[in-house]
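Page 42, continued from yesterday. The earlier attempt failed because a stray header line got pasted into the input along with the sequence. Redoing it now with the clean sequence only.
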Amino acid sequence: MTRDLDGRSTRWDDHRAARRRELVNAARKAVHRSGPGVSMDEIAAAAGTSKSIVYRYFEDKAGLRLAVSSAVVADMHDALARAATEAPSPLAALRAMVRVYLEMIEHSPHVYWFVTRTSIAGVEPAEGPDARPGAVGTPDTPLSAYLDSVIELVAEPFAQVADVSTDAAAAWAAGAVGFVRGSGEWWLARREAGATTLDREELTEQVTLWLWKGPVGVLQGHGQPDDAHDPRPIPQETAGAAAGDHGSTENKR
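This time it went through. Structure tokens are written below.
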């Protein structure tokens, strides 16, 4: 008897998990078509069911958003990991990850905005087609976990060519991830508005070189920026300001 009950319970759990996946996929398609402000009625219609059925599997829209976010960021992480693994060099790995990220957000801007418009303290973000992402997210969100995992991926190629500590590599990678995300979202918003002529491949190359030539160039120069050995004398006014001497300003009064 117990075995039969366990069997039925397992089958029900499997059915419930499969149905949740179907609803998440339907929600992604609905968001892709209608935008990040899509309603639960539209999501239910896309799934061929009623809103009450959707609420059997997800407590509210925030719960559905969380499930969609988990699926999307898992796909993005897998794609980035494959790109980094298959690249022939550290620089190629960085370029491949930047390219994959831009390709994915360009393919479905609506889904990207839906996922990155993370709610704070349980408050849903404003709806509407013009809504844009706000905060990165709280530590327990899929987006935050995704960013942490991507930092690890990005730190690896940097650490391969720079003689730095693990913490230094991670710090650079955290900045790089934020830079790529910021550049990508700037480009995506302007691309949707027709306000930029910069295409995806151009941005991929620019961002990759900005990231790579900056820190790697400095470190290969023994930790000094290119102008560290500039033989030109520092102007007296600049030298005084750098030393904290503000007397010249006061004397002009």
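Notes: Residues 2-34 form the longest helix (33 residues).
Reminder to self: strip header lines before submitting.
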